[in-house]
Amino acid sequence: MVAIVLNVNGQMRQAEVPPDMPLLWVLRDVLGLTGTKYGCGIAQCGACTVHVDGRPVRSCVLPVSAVGNAAVTTVEAVGQTPAGAKTQKAWLELEVVQCGYCQSGQVMSAAALLARTPSPTDADIDIAMAGNICRCGTYPRIREAIKRAAKS
Amino acid sequence: MTLRAPPPLIGTAGVEVVADRRKVLLGGGLVLGFAFAAVKAHARSTDQRVNNAGAQPVSNKDVADVAGAGFVGFKPDAFIRISPQNQVTLIIPNVEMGQGIYTGECMLIAEELEVGLDQVAVVPAPPDEALYKQPLLQFQGTGGSTSIRGAWEPLRKAGAAARVMLIQAAAQGWGVNPAECHAERAQVLHLASGRFATYGQLVNAASRIPKPQQVALKDPSQFKLIGKPAPRIDTPAKVNGTAMYGIDIMVPGMKFAVVANCPVLGGTLAGVDDSAAKAIPGVLQTVRLPNAVAVIGEHFWAAKQGLDACRISWNPGANAKLGSPALWADMARVAQAGPGAVAVQQGDVAGAYKGAKKQVEAVYRQPFLCHAPMEPQAAVVHVTGGGAEIWAGTQVPSRAQAFAAKVLGVAPEKVIIHNQLIGGGFGRKLETDYIEQACAIAKQCPYPVKMVWTREEDMQHDNYRPMYLDRISAGLDADGRPVSWSHRVAGASVTARYAPPGMKPNGVDPDAVEDAAEPVYGVFPNMLVDFVQWHPPAGVVVSWWRGVGPTHNIFVVESFVDELAHAVGKDPVAYRRDLLRNVPRARAVLDRAAQAAGWGSPLPARTGRGVIVQKCFGSYIAAVVEAAVSDEGDVTLRKITTAVDCGLTVNPTLVRQQLEGGILFGLTAALWQGITLKDGRVEQSNFNDYRMLRINETPPIDVIHMSTANPPGGIGETGTTAAAPALTNAIFAATGVRIRELPIDRALLKKGAKPQGAAVLAPLGVAAAAALAQGLAAKAAEGEP
Amino acid sequence: MRRVLSVILSLAVIGVIVAAAIAYWPAGPARAVAAPARTPELIARGQYIATAADCVACHTTEGGQLYAGGRAFKLPFGTIYSPNITPDRETGIGGWTDAAFLRAVKQGVDDDGQELYPALPYTSYHRMSDGDVLALKAYLDTLPAAHAPNHPNALSFPFNQRPLVRFWKILFMPRSGFAPDASKPADWNRGAYLVTALGHCGECHTPRNLMYGLKTGQALSGETVQGWSAWNITSDPHHGIGGWGAGDIAAYLKSGYAPGRGAANGPMKEAIDYSLSKLTPDDLTAIAVYLKSTPASDRGPAADANPPSLSASTLTGPASGDTGDAYGRRVFEGACASCHAWNGQGQQTPMAALHGLPSVADPKGINVIQTVLRGSSVTAPEGHAFMPSFRADYSDAEIAAAANYVVEHFGGASGRATPKDVAKARAQ
Fold first, then answer.
1. What angle do CA B651, B654, B658 make, to 5 degrees?
2. Which residue of B has its CA nearest to C326?
3. Residues of B in contact with C388 (CB under 8 A)
4. CB-CB: which of A1, A85, A130 is closest to B281?
5. What is the ipTM of this complex?
6. In this structure, what CATH number is given to the domain that contains residue A55?
7. Residue A66, min C-alpha distance to chain C (Å)
8. Residue B276: which domain range?
9. Which of A55, A73, A91 is the last residue of a domain?
10. Which of B452, B475, B509 is the last residue of a domain?
11. pTM assigned to the model
């Protein structure tokens, strides 16, 4: 156990956790930020995606000690970024969501894509989003929503 | 948590209104004509109101206040609560697992209650069979695409009755004729005098009005909400992280449990050495269950590390050597031996077969399937003196309550179920095993416990969609039409396990033969459909899976009809059109889908289109899948087209979503998924070996929504049932290889691969099947078991 | 004419007789040796020798009793099974004399005088000192005896004729044992002994000829064994490990991972887990010192490629207009990119970095394919990383395409993996 200070959603948060504990569980079980989801634990589904210094990472396999001073942004706060807000708005406009469980990760991956590639092509969308699994089959709407967000 | 509708948004697409002048009254008559009219969805202004709040504490107080005894205000029935502050809260009898039922059922009530969706809050119904029994299922549950079909009348009537009472209360207060008043956006208005009152102002007076026995419902032409693409009320919370699923619940003092179930299905725990686990910081205790070990920790990670450090020994039991090939062999033996319980029998099947111009036979196999919802199984249980509180997502709140009570050894009413949003159901949460296990663990703990299964546990200890073995044969006349039809379904019975009273007295599981006994084409002349129940070894549990019985049967029937079309050299669409000459709704969707898919237009090499048509859950669907097969046998989806007539539609957005998602769910399974056993253990473990379709493998999907004035049909599972046969028919068109076993074996699709001919798939002679069935029928007549 | 014929015939007869004599003449008796006293120190030394020689890896089945043998080795000409080397008198080596053991380990002749196949790496163990071999025997004699009859080999003719091994030995058996080089420091000599004798590194890393003999002139320059590539570990800075620091090598041998050098997998990971990770830090350094002094060879893929496809990529995506195998990229972007990242640095952990690894510069993608099929797991001071197996649901064509994409994108080489290669690797 070590005391770790994390910069999460613009706040400094402290946690007394093992250094190899994945960021996912620190966020969910220690800091109470349950918007970030557990799906597979092996970086295959993307439900746990958060931003570390704006870069989308799979928090289920990211040791908390590897975060360091980097800024962690979760789905709870991504709406405060321009790309995150655009993404969420487009998600509502195109009624992307069904069960919603994977959508935290989908929104995070899409927001990161839009932040670095304001007008993504279909290939860009594939590259950024293919790591996020959705069991409800919202993929066609995700694709359209990203394009909508890019235009807004 | 309560959910509120976001502001209205731009609708997603048009709906084709099909005016069938003879409507339902004429049943299956000839269609006189269609009139297609696109209803333009209203483009409405929207703001950017997205809830940016952080994670919010769970409050079950909301639910207790409105659904429990503590509510003060107008409470005309089980569904509607209006507070003096004019807060309208609707208690939704079905659970939200992505299908949008909170929105759909909300619309049904709101339509007649005359409130806007933006004015209501929604809470899930607590367990209460008396108040919330699903009319079609006859228990409190969500499944089988029954929600809207069941709620269509009762919820509108509830809304209408409450509105009548509120209007009457206002009219009495004003001393005017209720007929001069009307309701609008949660207020009653008397236009003649300019008076108005909010519902909140009327709650006391309305509570004194007797509930009317009969209420008139709006004519569909008067609908303000129903039929419009109203935005889902659960979406905002699901894009900003505030939506709470069972796995997200945090209660004060709660600890975390991670479980290892005996890896051999049906095995038991022999012993566990947890000394290493206890040395791990954050590990609190080890809980031993008859067939599992749970480690409790300060968080999931500590518990998981602790579990990994445990040295567990298991008694594998009778399934120690169990493997899938043996299961298939056993099922084939049982299927061959019969006798089958007769679901449909008419005419002289064997004679007509023998005398037919052409005979076609086939055997189909379908695997165990896991549900694998994105949210792994989880439940929070707090055992208190004499009872328990449970927070979990469940499709069956009262069943969960009863089964939890049994585990805890308390009366059901001592168990409080706080139902949560479900992160993907697909049938998984019709089961209560995870809640029962969480109770068994929490019983041994002095604090509330959140049990979370790893993905691996979820996949390896699911209750699986049964394996099925279908033998089917048909005799065709000179026109290629079936004059003899014999179909033997063999498989484990979910009904017998889950709801034994649902079994027919003669042993037919209605689920297992659903849509095989009554194909969309109607009952064929000289037809026999029977069912042989196969009993899987104890410990291997079968369950409902999205699309239930029809998922399995539509694959068989629609594959086989395709085989028949090709056997007589006819185009698969034309062949089906002919068979559907008396089923206009089916023919209409078939024609529309074929047209939109460009049926018949040229395609590149090793690329094909496959079509299916189905009537399931009260809805008619046709689907065309276009797929390409590489020389190596890999399948690429190119385009999906479906046309749906689900009758009157509550919310077209939800219909589209369900069609899109349902078909992708089914295609995923057809392409890759099958649960197999080796040495009694499930061989699949996670998404690396139980593969999921990804966005870059998903083609465009065109959903053509044809709204007719028929009663609403179910929709949540219809895409799934359509998927596999449409794909395998497309593969046949592309390669000439008929896929008769799922998931698709890509080795069969390699260019130049030898045609399949596994002995195990040899069809049973139709005469033998008929003889067996008749033997059984004779025995039944004699009163033998 | 007749004379010529009779001469030829005579020569042939003599040849056959000589060959038969070579093949069937009974082996000479094992050279008598003085048995050292079985002190605890000797047994401990024997245990370390057993570890350094990695006996357990071959002489144990998965989940089976240690040293009880039975592990199958699939070779191009059949399958052979390792024998039981526990001190069981009936089925193990309990009845063997020290002399017989010494002869078996160093000469490849068993207790009965039968030839042993060179799957037992006596071409390397030949260099072991008698003292080490006898210490090893002393240790093995302390193991619990396992009654485990040896599994008969399943070799095709003529490989099932043990006497033929004698001809092989004439061609390929080293003539001399290990001789320290007085001109080199002690750690170099220790390293040489560990690499060439105990560790038998060359058995995998040195190329073999058609007759399975080691091409000693190309020692340690890389070979494919059991479906995996054992890379060039000569001192060449690009093709070998010349660019590695001695610390990198020691760290890699200790944990199976060194930053920027990738994670060990397959047979190398086994060698590390069972053997190398348990060696003393001094011995690991000695190995590094020796390896860095070996003659450089430029065989095999160059490991430090930095192709434009990689340098133009970011963590989250390839350069726009990526020209890699589109089918392979489809697999990669779905199942692989989340961990490996597009610029080769690793997304969540540098342990998943692919940049600069020989595996991704190998046009056949041999180890890439194996890793995709079998997964990987490594625990190092830097942390724990794992990769699941993708064999169940990804087709041969998909895995070949993904391997080719990886080789093109990360290695800058032209991927030449075929679905058939993947099918073969699956069957390994």
1. 145
2. B696
3. 685-686, 688-689
4. A1
5. 0.98
6. 3.10.20.30
7. 8
8. 246-317+377-452
9. A73
10. B452
11. 0.91
